[in-house]
């Protein structure tokens, strides 16, 4: 699955939560350069990305530090 990208963090957070609830699987919100992306956690391959949040459809969003 291709990540959804945005320059707006608030919009990316909304997409992340929506995707997690739609797929009923955890997703990650990451930053790459000046863009934010959303990707199912299972599709993350360890690329050089800064993971900001993980959204779980049962627990909500939690920052990743």
What does this structure look like?
- With 65 residues, this protein is α+β, with helices and mostly antiparallel strands.
- The chain contains one helix and five strands, in the order βαββββ.
- A five-stranded antiparallel β-sheet has the order 1-3-2-4-5, covered by helices on one side.
- A hairpin with a 2-residue loop joins strand 2 (27-32) and strand 3 (35-40).
- The longest helix has 15 residues, at 9-23.
- The protein is globular and about 30 Å long.
- The N and C termini lie far apart (25 Å).
First and last CA, distance: 25 Å
Proportion of residues in β-strands: 35-45%
The parts where pLDDT drops under 50 for at least 5 residues are none
H/E element order: EHEEEE
Biggest sheet: strands side by side, in what order? 1-3-2-4-5
Helix content: 10-25%
> What characterizes the major β-sheet?
5 strands, antiparallel
> How many alpha or pi helices?
1
